[in-house]
Amino acid sequence: MKKLVVFDLDGTLLNTIADLAESTNHALKEFGYPVHTVEEYYYFVGNGINKLFERALPENERTQENILKIRSSFVPYYNVHNADYSRPYPGIPELLAKLQEQGIKLAVASNKYQAATEKLVKHYFPEIHFAAVLGQREGIPTKPDPGIVRDCMHMAEIENREEVLYVGDSNVDMQTALNAGVDAVGVAWGFRPESELKAFCPKCIAHDATEILNLINKE
């Protein structure tokens, strides 16, 4: 029986791609770099914002100095505009409420920086009590490092990895679950193709939120 479900945020709980694209393009334009379509950003995100900026910059401009310049423009803009277009995926609020009602502990493990992770979770899921809401934190490795899952388990007071389910939409998420030694569910509605998820042999691929609930209740 699963006692803790750890969710990725972007592409899993929330469709945030338009706001991420808009905010990164804002920063790129400020420094005279070419911008990208929303569709291109599906393959830029997933490994934290510094990696997002590296991928968005022209290949011959991907220096640490330029990454930090883009970050200096992106963060204040995104802090204001991160909920302009972002929305929960269909069925997600209901899924979280049902799991909470059943006494299953919930957590968020994201590569989005901590302040934005906390803000978005609080904004879109105010009725849900999460045992942990963890994003990218200074000095702590990002996913697929398993530390964030272990931190969630510690905060939820869950010791047995067999009681944990990790839910995400990308190869980074599937690798995170594998590294942490916990079962994974890949979601087909996120930022990456289903084939990318299947390569890591998750417990299942969910095509809607009810499939996750059904899987947990069958345990």
Describe the structure.
By secondary structure, this protein is of the alpha/beta class. It has a 6-stranded parallel sheet with strand order 5-4-1-6-7-8, with helices on both faces. A two-stranded antiparallel ribbon has the order 2-3. The protein folds into 2 domains: 144 residues, Rossmann fold (3-Layer(aba) Sandwich); 65 residues, Putative phosphatase, domain 2 (DNA polymerase, domain 1). It has 10 helices and 8 strands. It is globular, with a radius of gyration of 17 Å. It starts with a strand and ends with a helix. The longest helix is centred in the N-terminal third of the chain and has 18 residues.
Radius of gyration: 17 Å
Strand order of the largest sheet: 5-4-1-6-7-8
**What CATH architecture label of the largest domain applies?**
3-Layer(aba) Sandwich
Rounded to the nearest angstrom, the distance between the terminal CA atoms is 5 Å
**CATH fold-level name of the largest domain:** Rossmann fold
Principal-axis shape equals globular
Which structural class do the helices and strands define?
Answer: alpha/beta
- Count the helices. How many? 10
Mean pLDDT: 96
N-to-C series of helices and strands: EEHHHHEHEHEHEHEHEH
- Our count of domains comes out at 2
Give the C-level CATH assignment of the largest domain: Alpha Beta
The CATH homologous superfamily of the largest domain corresponds to: HAD superfamily/HAD-like
Low-confidence region ranges: none
Helix content: 40-55%
* Approximate strand percentage: 15-25%
Count of distinct strands? 8
Biggest pleated-sheet summary: 6 strands, parallel
